[in-house]
Each structure stands twice: as C-alpha cells, then as structure tokens.
Amino acid sequence: MNPSKYDVIIVGAGVAGPAMAYALSSSSNLRKAIPESSQRKKPLQILLVDSKLRKPERIVGELLQPGGVLALRRLGLERALDNIDAVRAKGYCVMRPKVPSSLGKSQNEGTFEKGSSGTQFEQVHIPYPDGNEGRSFHHGEFVSSLRACAASAPGVTLLEASVQSDLVYCPHTGRILGVRATRSSGKRVEIFLAKLTIFANGNSSFRKAVYLPATTRPPAAGAESISSPAKTPTDKNLDTKALGSFYGLVLPHPPNKSYILPMYQHGTVVLVPDAAGPILLYQVSSHDTRILIDIPKNSPHARAVPAYIKSIILPNLPTPELRESLQSLVDEAEEKEGKLKMQSAINPFFPAPPQGGCRTREGGLLLGDAWNQRHPLTGGGMTVAFWDIVTLATELISTEKELFGEGGTGQATSTNGPKDTMPLDGHVLKHEEEWTIGRWDLMDDIFNRWWWRRKGYASTINILSVALYDLFGGSSSNLETLQTGCFKYFELGGEAINGPVTLLAGLAPRPFLLFCHFFAVAFYSLWVMFTHRRPVLVRGQNTKNEGSNGYTNGHANGHANGHANGHANGHANGHANGHTNGYSNGHTKIMDTRVVMRRPSILEYPNLVIRSFAVFWTACIVFGPLMWTEIKW
Questions:
Q1: What separation in angstroms does the CA of 312 have from each of 100, 114, 186, 277, 341?
Q2: DSSP-assigned beta bridge partners for residue 126
Q3: Which of 392, 395, 429 is nearest to 193 (CA)?
C-alpha cells in the first residue's frame, strides 16, 4: 500500500497540537497579517494524529493566564473557551495563617489552635492589571474544544492512531520523512509521509529521535589525538527532570454556592508552615473547584498522601466550605474503605535546547511540552505554547510557498543532514520516494528567529515558575525570611503588585523586569528582618503570684476542713495538700509560654547583619541557576 502524503504531520492532539494545526490552516487569523502573495492558494494538508481522542482527564493544563488568552485571540481560537463552562480568572489571593498569639494554653482558655477550623489567615489580593482576565476550566473540556476547532479547519485531518517510535528516515541523510502508525481500529502499520513532522505529544519520547546523537569531532589534520574528544552542541541531557508531584482533587460545591474560594474568580495560593509545599486552588467550572497539593521529590509525605491531606491540608483550608467539601470526600472514602479519588501529575522541568542547524534532524521539530517544560505552579505552560505557535506559524506561513510548494511536489535537497547516522535498516524509504521540504536552509533561518523571539516570554515564565516554587516550597529559615519579605512586598501595593503579576500573567515578556522585582523582594526581605515585628517566644508573666495564691487557698481550705473533721488530722492533711496542689499549679504556670510580635532590638543587629548575607546568598542560589539554564544553550 502506498504511503499517505501530507504537507505537515502533527503528532499529539493535546493542547499545542490542535492549536498548531489550526494556526497553519486557511482559517487562521495569522494569515490576515501576511501578504497573500506569500501564501499558497491551496490550503496545507495537515494530519493531526493522537493515540487517544477521547476526552482526557488531567489535573494540570486547567488555568490559562491572560497572556495565553491574548495568544488564542491572535490565532482566532478564542472560541475554544466558549461552551465549556470556563470560569473567568481575575487574579490571585495569597494566604497564610496568622501567627498565634500564645502557645501552651488549653483550648478552653480561648487560645489559638493551629490547624483548627478557627485558624485565622492573612491575605494579599493580587489582581490582574488593566482588566485582563484568564480562564480556568476542566482540561478535558478545553482539549476537546481545541480538537473540534482544528478538525473544522480546511485541510486538517484528525486521526486516532498510535505513532511508533521508529520514524521514517532518509537512508542517505537521516532526514525525518514521516511516521509509522497503527490506527485504533486496526492492527496494520501504515506509513504517513510529510514535508514537515511536528512532535507535540507532551513528553520526551521523541526528543532523542529529533535531536542528533552526540558525535565526536575528529582531530584536525596533523593535530595530536586528545583523550577527551569534544562533543557536538547537542551533547545534553534530553530527559525531563521531575521536581515532585501535584496531587489533585475536585471539590464539589454545595447546591446553593457559586464559589467556595475566599475571593470570587480568583485563584488561591495557601502557604502553610507544616505543609510540604504550597496549596493551589482555583475554580474549574460553575460547580467544581480544583485543589492541587504539592509533594516535593523525596518528601516523606509521598508515602502517605491521604493521611497528609487529612492531618495537614484539611484543617488549614481557608474557608468552611472548602473544609466541608474535602471532608465529605474523606468521609466517603472511609465509608467505602477505599482511597481518595485523586490524580497525580509529575511537576516537570526541561529547558528548551535550540533546534535546527547541526542539532536536530531535518524534517522534524518539537513543540509544546515535548520541547520545553516548567513547574505548573504558575500555570504558564499553555501561555508559552500558544505564543510559540503564534511565532512559529507566522514564520512558516510567510514562507510556505518556498517550503511546501503550491500544493504539488517537494524536492529533496539536504543541506545539513549527517551522512553517518544510526543504523536505519527497516526504517527508511527509497530516496526517490522522499516527500520533503526542498529548502531546509530556510527552516534553519526560521528556527533561529523563533529561538530569539521566544526568549522574552518563555524565559520570563520559565524562571518565574521554578523560582516561586523554590521560594514558597522551601522550609529553611532563609527561605522563610524571603517568603515573609515577598508577602510584605505584595502588601506595599502599586508597582510591587502590578509588576510581578504582569510577569505571572504572561503580559510582560521582560526577563530583566523579573530580575529587578526578584531582587527587590530579596532586599526588602532584609529590611523587614531588621524593622518589622516578628513572632518571639517568651515566658508567661505573673506566674509566681498564681502559685502563691494556690498555696494560700489550699492551705486555708485544708485548715478549715481539718477543723470540721478533726483539728489535728485535717490541719496536717489540708496543709500538705494545699501546699502540694498550690505549688504544683503555680509551677505549671511558670512553664507557660507566649508568642508576641516584637521588633528586633539594636543588640540583635550584629547577628542579623551576618544572617543577611546568608539570606541574600539563598536568593542568588534560587534565581541564578534558573537564569543560567535559559542562556547556557
């Protein structure tokens, strides 16, 4: 059977795949800004293939920042947010428990009980600027809507089939010519050829197929051999790094409640001292709220997540409705002697290596999470993917005549493919059967422009996501100082909120602005450490008087009772009991402690100066390596 031929094959129909298929179609809004003389008269023939086209169920990819909404609008895909019960997102609410006023007293005495339903929280409101709004939704609903939009576009074919890892290569150049796939309705392996194959399947399974393997450069003529041969620039670790996991539950709303979060249409981040990491909550439909619970890698809580949720998370949720909803899920699981119905997802990190040139095979490219991953705490992944699609699709459409022809044939002309590739027996086609882009040197130019144009938005969101996670998820004293400084920085309002939230929302693709605000938080944390009140543990007061009163009362009562029951024995017993009980009670009161809010005294300044260097160094350790990962490639 002859291979099926397309202009473009897109592997993966999650978030990035359908959006890219629509962006390259004749329905794309991007074509309105490109001269018709640069465009083909016939629409590109695009195959969008995925192993499962049923509605996916995932706990990430449910929050789209305002920057992502703007990118969808640029593509003409904003209608994908309609009719999926999406909820408007107008900003964030960051909360943490207030410091207890005292410790060591009983609940009957009206003291603060950490983790109880009476926990009081302090909060900071962080609205999106200038009326910008994001959207939150069930992931499966959004993906299904994107697929429907892509399938309705001229030239796009949606196929349910499993793509095999052994791609179709050129036997002479190693160029990627297409894929082998098995339809879900059959068992026969079919070959699909394309001039360009885009891998957007959301994982790392095809990275090593696209990036060229590291090769040893031979020594120059006449040069001595070297013991450690130099490697090509693609000698990098192409595996995704796992930073931990998110565990997710859907909290149903009571029948009469449109929302159960502290602030309507605002995501909520809860910072609990005893928690393993931050708690993220946002509404995903008119009747459901998502809770994401972070468990860092190698955390002891990973071995008993249900117990951790019950003992730490449940008591520290900020509203009664949230606690009641989660409690109902816990009770239901216990009644059925089962486990909580929760899903988990790896929190990934993979900085994007450059594509094109001598780094990747001709004929293929990576897109979305297959190429670049960051921590999902800030919900920036889809925003990066959609702007990547805007940038790349604009470049491809502008040169589609040269790349794909007028809807006819493609001519094979390799410009930079290696001649000595991995063994390709059984995975190649005859050279005369190639169906390829004839001018791959144009693609190298596109890769280069795409790489530098994406640096602003991608680097900003990537660095911010992991930096905030490291900051809010840490438990060291230095990180706690930075956490407090960050919270107080937000309380300043004005630009102290507008600047960071525009970065978070994907509205300000400016890494230098992120650098300025991050270290403004670091320096402000030092100022807070010297000048603001902080919780200090002190001994209780008036404890000796209480003991003295106990002794006196016990002695008097015992003496009086002794007269009634026999003067001698009563006097002796009353004196002994009064002395013992009164002294014991008084002694217990001496051990009472209290937490008071107090500014550091000038005598503490020398130690604080020394600690300031440690805190600032911690800030550098958090931010510096992340910045390096974005520029080292």
A1: 17, 10, 49, 11, 18
A2: 92
A3: 429
